[in-house]
Amino acid sequence: MSFWALAVSAQSTFLQPVQVMGTSENTLNLIATENERFLISGATGLTIEDTFKVSFFAICLDQQANLLWEYYFPPVDLNTINYTGFYNGILEVSDGYLFVGHFSDLQSTDKDLFLVKIDKETGEEIWIKEYNTLREEVARSIIQTSDGSLLVTGETRNGIDLTDFDNVDIFLMKTDAGGNIIWKQTYDSGELLQDRGFQVLDTSDGGYALACGIKPIDFGGSSEGYLIKVDGLGNKEWEFHHKPEGWSPVVRSRASLNFSLAGNLLFLSQFEISGSGSSMQLREFSLQGDTLAVNDLAGGGYWRTETMVATADGNFASYSLGNYNSFTIQDQFEEETQIDDLPLLFSKYTESGEIIWERYYHFFDADIDVKNISHVPWDNGFALTGFYAGEDATPEEPNSYILRLDENGCLDPENCGLYMWVDDGVVIDKSHLVNVGIDDFELPQLKLYPNPASDKLKVELLENAKHYLIHNIAGTQVMQSGQIKNALPELELDVSDYPPGVGVYIFKSIDQKGNLVGGTRFVKE
């Protein structure tokens, strides 16, 4: 498949398939480990003794995505499927890897949580702990606390008010290192709603914080951000319910949680204002529940941001399905290719929500779904996983992948701008498509010479210029574009091939975020 023709670069960035036994795998979790490996988990369909079964799987890869070992945990009977915890369902501990998942009964709503520990080097199962309960219980996240215990959060229908059959509550379970329960608590938002725990953090005051979601039963697909702070025994101390505004709140994301540089809680959730669409809001809370800051991510306009990962420099990165700019790019992509598809969007931002860089990617030959993102500590890059649908793929071909980006979000550092196409194994910087046609009179004027130009053109650059493009006066033809490296004060370009006597051309410079920061006109003689 040409989709996988992209070679590994010297910067260890790549796009590689992940071969999983079975068909129609659903790859959901990814971490980069301390010994410089990648762990991926999910569920896949296996045929065992002529019977199709959905099995939990875990795969360990080296730095270049070569398989080291794989582990499968199929169900024991025809009426059960084994699924993975989603979204933070993998934990590295000193003597192994822990994975959360659940058994799901196909003949009822019953789901039972399990915890499996696997040897780091061999991939062999060390132990499995099953938590058989009367009703549904699904884990989403697992962490290790400062005392070596384990914390698991998710959703449960055990020991709660079932006056409304659809009611679901959040649970938090603390176990010892062997998975034996120490205590367990459930949390309800106050109404008969579907409350789910997505993520848990171990806080410096001896307690814990949970990023959760509330799904009002009457509102279909909507969801609302919900933050809970508890003490060391799981007793609720305070909560924050981020209710979306507007006449029809439709939220497509789960809430994310991390720490600010000062050790406060950063809570990323979505909100909606009637008539203006949805945006992501980044709130900072003290551990006592005081609101310290409220910031719209990049001024608003983002939606469906998944896991928010902390980077080594104190900032954050995430994958988003889109923002307002994505729809402009989608229209331009369709005009160029006749393919109607949103680009994948990766962003790095400060704890106050200011964008450091953005990368938009369009991948040809396959529709890619991103499910998880992880910071890679050994080179400060990023790794992502999920699944894809190839144009001509058969059920036996892989539909899981690992995507490695460098610390600047680049797949190919030599061809990296605001917007890239990945086609037939080649990364093409198409940043100029986002900016052509904007009136150059609105931009700060740049100095260039000679003007008119016949051969060489020299341009004095602004300090924040990272990319450039030249197009004709009508904005219908791009003559030249590229990346500005090493903060050059001046750029020399060859314009000798430009048609003489055609008229006026426009030079534009673009910053790291894709904003136009300067421009001027010149004449080709």
Q: Main attributes?
A:
525 residues, mainly beta, Methylamine Dehydrogenase, Chain H, Immunoglobulin-like, 2 domains, 2 helices, globular, disordered N terminus
Tell me what the structure shows.
- This protein is mainly β and 525 residues long.
- It folds into two domains: 37-366 and 422-433, Methylamine Dehydrogenase, Chain H, CATH 2.130.10; 435-523, Immunoglobulin-like.
- Helices cover 3% and strands 51% of the residues.
- The protein is built from two helices and 39 strands.
- Strands 23, 24, 25, 26, 27, 31 and 32 form a seven-stranded mixed β-sheet that branches.
- A hairpin with a 5-residue loop joins strand 15 (194-202) and strand 16 (208-215).
Chart the SSEs and their pairings:
Elements: E1 14-18, E2 23-32, E3 38-48, E4 51-61, E5 67-73, E6 80-84, E7 90-93, E8 96-105, E9 111-118, E10 125-131, E11 137-144, E12 150-156, E13 169-175, E14 181-187, E15 194-202, E16 208-215, E17 224-230, E18 236-242, E19 256-259, E20 265-273, E21 277-285, E22 291-296, E23 302-305, E24 309-310, E25 316-323, H1 324-337, E26 344-349, E27 355-363, E28 366-376, E29 381-390, E30 400-405, E31 419-423, E32 426-429, H2 432-435, E33 448-449, E34 456-460, E35 467-472, E36 478-483, E37 490-494, E38 504-510, E39 516-523
Parallel strand pairs: 27-31
Antiparallel strand pairs: 1-30, 2-3, 3-4, 4-5, 6-8, 7-8, 8-9, 9-10, 11-12, 12-13, 13-14, 15-16, 16-17, 17-18, 19-20, 20-21, 21-22, 23-25, 24-25, 25-26, 26-27, 28-29, 29-30, 31-32, 33-34, 34-37, 35-36, 35-38, 38-39
